[in-house]
Structures are given as C-alpha cells and as structure tokens.
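Reviewer has doubts. Consider these tokens.
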Amino acid sequence: MKELRYLDDVSTLALNDEKCIGCSLCTQVCPHAVFKMRNDKAHIVDFNACMECGACVNNCPSGAIAVSPGVG
C-alpha cells in the first residue's frame, strides 16, 4: 500500500523554538507524526506530512505552534 502524502512545501505549519516548553503534547496529538522531541523541545521532523488539522495548535499550551488550516 502506498503511503499517503500531501503536496510538498505547501503547509503553513510553523514552530517557534523559543516558545516551546517541551510538554510533548504535539507529538501525542499529531495524526501524522510531524513532531518529535529532541533535547526537551519539539522539532518538526516531517513538515510535508502536515495536513493542517490544527490538533497541535489546539493542544499547545505555550502558543509555540501556528498553522492556518485549509490554506496549504
């Protein structure tokens, strides 16, 4: 079965490293494993897998993540 992918480099996903508090909620709620924890901070590891669902934004307590669902 072929892996489901979206268009490359069109997502509006952005992560502000300075605002990230390392709670790891984004890694738990993202349905496509876009985020991974490294050195107690979240990092985007698969930008092009983001489907802009907004789950990460809605669960980030520090406002470190931004995405405009449906734009990309």
In short: Strands lie at 14-15, 35-38, 41-44, 65-66.
